[in-house]
Amino acid sequence: MSKGAKNIERNLLVILGAGESGVGTAILGKKEGFQIFVSDKGKIKDNFKAQLDEHEIEWEEEQHSEEKIFEAHLVMKSPGIPDDAPLVSRLRGKGIPVISEIEFAYTYTSAVLVGITGSNGKTTTTKLTHHLLKNGGLNVGMAGNVGKSFAKQVAETDADHYVLELSSFQLDGIEDFKPHIAVLTNITPDHLDRYRHDFNQYIASKFRIVKNQTEKDYFIYDADDPVIMKWLQENPILSQKLPFSLREELEKGAFIKDEQLIIRTDNSEMTMSTSKLTIEGKHNAKNAMAAATVAQLLRIRKETIRQSMESFQGVEHRLEKVLKINSVQYINDSKATNVNATYYALESMESETIWIVGGVDKGNEYAELLPLVNEKVKAIVCLGINNEPIINAFGNCVDTILETRSMEDAVQQAYKLAEKGDAVLLSPACASFDLFENYEDRGRQFKEAVRNL
């Protein structure tokens, strides 16, 4: 069902990038009557080729046939392709619209949308929100940065509700997209290499999630986050604001008082004991507040929310307890791809910690970690091609810093350093692309190496 967001002539839809979002968009575009051409500069995975062939969609790999691409009436680009890539700039220069999968799929669904973004906590909040809504009996899909492609789900099953995890790259490609409920978990410097090392550009990208909201929509956000609060003071928005906070009691929104999580929306109030939350740490209390606020707005029964919070198992690669060996706890936090995520991980540690850190540095400022490293870290195991920034940052406050180039070696070195009662924490604070396919691959290799000890 079309919202008529754009009156685009349904002729040639070109898709740049044949990953999850590209193939999903191709399938939806074909269903909606477009001619489709999928072009990927790299190799296309076999499972995606099979899906394209099954739907009789034309594709190419390891090249971009520009003559064909420039015939497009509309282009959907993978979020991994930068906005200033020469091909994208030239397409826009010729007046050819270039959008994201999220924008394209939005046009063909009338579902109630919950959009979740933030530098950290997006995945946990998305999965917890989906868990609450599904247990509450809603017909709900989960997509975006997690789960199957949003476009593919709209093409094949089209749920009544979607919970969408949205990266800044996906938000950069929206024009008319509007979630009924928008969630912003926090904003800290991340991906600055993509935003010309301008933090303000990155902040503006995150706030695109509210740009089309009206007075009938809701915005849930962290009232303790100075970056969010400053932006809201300077940029009025139309949607109804529902903040959450660990520091203050709120007239509307979510907060903690006397070890009770309290959520106030419109004329409704819900409480539950913080001791019943299965996910640990202050950051996860905030993720729980955001998810529960969404569930309240969508009228999920309070008892269902409480029970669902108690049964939620957390997210793989996020403070995931792997094994205890010789009274040493091994923890996989591979999803911590920036400094702020690692801050949360170190803050939650209650034992002396051997910290495995490193990877592709995205312009990291490590200074905010120094107090926590001083207090909690007894040794650092660097895991990356370029470990110099980490050694320079922490060389004066940790006696033992080792360099490794493989996960197996990193885990072996941590094993030798750890004593009874310690923890070994993989929380890289960096992207994974120097030694691993992605953060999932890094986390799985960590778990495998721990199990092989």
TrEMBL record:
First-listed, main subcellular location of the protein, grouped into a coarse class: cytoplasm
UniProt-listed Gene3D superfamilies: Mur ligase, C-terminal domain, Mur-like, catalytic domain, NAD(P)-binding Rossmann-like Domain
GO cellular component term of the entry, any: cytoplasm
Domain Mur ligase central: 116-295
GO biological process, one term: cell division
Binding site for ATP: 118-124
Pfam families: Mur_ligase_C, Mur_ligase_M, MurD_N
Top-rank EC class of the record's enzyme: ligase
Catalytic activity, EC: 6.3.2.9
Subcellular localization, as worded in the UniProt entry: Cytoplasm
UniProt keyword annotations, A-Z: ATP-binding, Cell cycle, Cell division, Cell shape, Cell wall biogenesis/degradation, Cytoplasm, Ligase, Nucleotide-binding, Peptidoglycan synthesis
GO MF: ATP binding; UDP-N-acetylmuramoylalanine-D-glutamate ligase activity
Pathway it works in: Cell wall biogenesis; peptidoglycan biosynthesis
Mur ligase C-terminal domain sequence ranges: 317-430
UniProt catalytic activity: UDP-N-acetyl-alpha-D-muramoyl-L-alanine + D-glutamate + ATP = UDP-N-acetyl-alpha-D-muramoyl-L-alanyl-D-glutamate + ADP + phosphate + H(+)
Role, per record: Cell wall formation. Catalyzes the addition of glutamate to the nucleotide precursor UDP-N-acetylmuramoyl-L-alanine (UMA).
The family this protein is said to belong to: Belongs to the MurCDEF family.
Protein name stated in the entry: UDP-N-acetylmuramoylalanine--D-glutamate ligase
Originating species: Salinimicrobium profundisediminis
